Amino acid sequence: MAQFALRRSHIIAAASLTALLASCAHSPQPPAPSQPPVTSPSPETGPISYESSGHADIDAWRKDFSARALAAGHDRAVVKSVLTGISPLELWLGSTFQPAQTGIEDQAEFAKPIWDYLRVPMSNSRISTGQARLAENPALFDALEAAYNVDREAIVAIWGMETSFGAIKGNYDGPNVLANMAVEGRRKGLAESELLSLMKILEKGDAQRDDLKAGWAGAMGHTQFMPSTYIAFAQDFDGDGLKDIWNSEADALASAANYLSSSGYALHQPWGIEVLAPTGFDYSLADGNERRMESWMQAGLVPAAGGAFNTNGANYAELWLPAGAEGPKYLLFNNFKVFKTYNNADSYAFAVGLSGDAMGGRMGPVAAWPTHLHPLTVSEIKTLQAALNAKGFDAGVVDGIPGRKTKGALQAFQKSQGLVADGYPTREALAMVTGSGSVGVAVSPGTN
C-alpha cells in the first residue's frame, strides 16, 4: 500500500510538471530585440572623378569624353577603368613631338622603294619562320581553312607582316594610346570611336581590362586589330569563352581569317600572277582597270613561270607595274584587293602575297628589280602631284602617296609626250613633268 501511495504521488507530480510546462509554452514571450535595417550604398552618380594626369589638355578631354561615354549608356565602372591612369606619351604629346613621326614619311609602305620594302617580309628569316609555324600545327591550319575558306599561306603571311608571328605585338596600354591620339587632335574622331569600341569589348566580357595592349596607333594582338575590327570579326576559336587575340594564336589567326573571308577572299585562287609582256606592249593598259583573262592573253601576256594561266576560276585581273615597265609585272586578282582591306597600301598587299607564296614554296618575282632607277621620296611625290595638277593631269590631292590616281595622271602625261606610259614616279619622270630635264623613254622595253 505504501509503495502504491508512493507511486501515485510520483504520477501526480509528473502530471503537474507536464501541465506547468504546457502552460509556459502557451504563455506570450517577450519580443526579440529589433535589428537595424540593412542598407546598400547608393550607386555613384554624376561625373566620374579622376586623378590628374599632370597634363591639362588630357584632363580636360577626359572629363568631357567620360561624360559623353556615360551619356551614351556605357557602364560606369567600365568607363572609369578605361580612362583611369591616362597619361601623356612622348610619341603623341611630348615636347619633341613632330607630326612626321606618325605621318606618311614614316610608313615604309610609302617611304621606301618597293625592293627595299620587301627585304624584311621576303627575308630568309621571315620565310623560314613562317614555314616552321605552318609545319608546327597543321591541324590548326586545316581547321582554319575549313572554317573560313582562306588559304593558310595568306593567314600566316598576314601574321608575319603584322607582328612577326607575335614577336612584336606592342606593349602600349591601348586606351592610353587612343586617348593621346584624341588629345593630339588630327584623328580625334577615329580615336574616340575606337575607345568606345574598347568599352563595348569589356562590357561584353570578350576580354579583360589588362588584356588591352596595343601598338603605337591602337592596333591590338597577334594580328593587330583595331577595337572596332575586333568587335566585328574577333573569334573564340579555342572555345575558352574569350576572344583572346593577345595570347591565343588560335583566336588571333581565326579572327584574321574571318576578316579576310568576310572581305571576299576566294580559297585557292591567286592573289597575283607574274607575267611577261611582248615588245611594243601598251603599258597604259596598267590603268587600274580589270579586264578578262582572255583580253590579257590576246594582248600577249604570258606567265613568267611558264606554262598556261591557272586562276582557279578568277576570270578578271588588272595589270600592275610595281616598279614600272622595267621591273616585274603582275596581273592582280580579287584576293589582292582583299589583302588591301587589311592595309590599303599596294606594297603591303604585294608583300603579303609574295611572302605567302614563298612560305608555300613558290618564290618570286622572276624578273629583276630595276634598282638603277630613282624612285621619288614622299616630298618629291608631292612636287610631282602638284606639277601634274598644274598641267591639267588630275593627280588628285597632293598628299605624297603615289596611288592609282597619281600614277594614272603620270601615265596620261607620258602618253602625251610619246613616252612609255607606265606611270612609275621616278626622278627622271619628275624632271620631265616639271621641265627641269629631258630624261625619258621613248620606246617600250622588250619582253621581260
From TrEMBL:
A biological-process GO annotation: peptidoglycan catabolic process
Keyword Translocase: no
Keyword list, A-Z: Signal
Compositional bias segments (type: Pro residues): 28-40
Source organism, top-level taxon: Bacteria
Pfam families listed in its UniProt record: PG_binding_1, SLT_2
Record-linked SUPFAM superfamilies: Lysozyme-like, PGBD-like
UniProt signal peptide: 1-27
UniProt keyword Signal present: yes
Transglycosylase SLT domain sequence ranges: 59-355
Positions of region (Disordered): 25-53
Residue span, Peptidoglycan binding-like domain: 379-431
Matching Gene3D superfamilies: 1.10.530.10, Bacterial muramidase (1.10.8.350), PGBD-like superfamily/PGBD (1.10.101.10)
One GO MF term: peptidoglycan lytic transglycosylase activity
Protein name: Uncharacterized protein
Native source organism of the sequence: Hyphomonas pacifica
Upper lineage: Bacteria, Pseudomonadati, Pseudomonadota, Alphaproteobacteria, Hyphomonadales
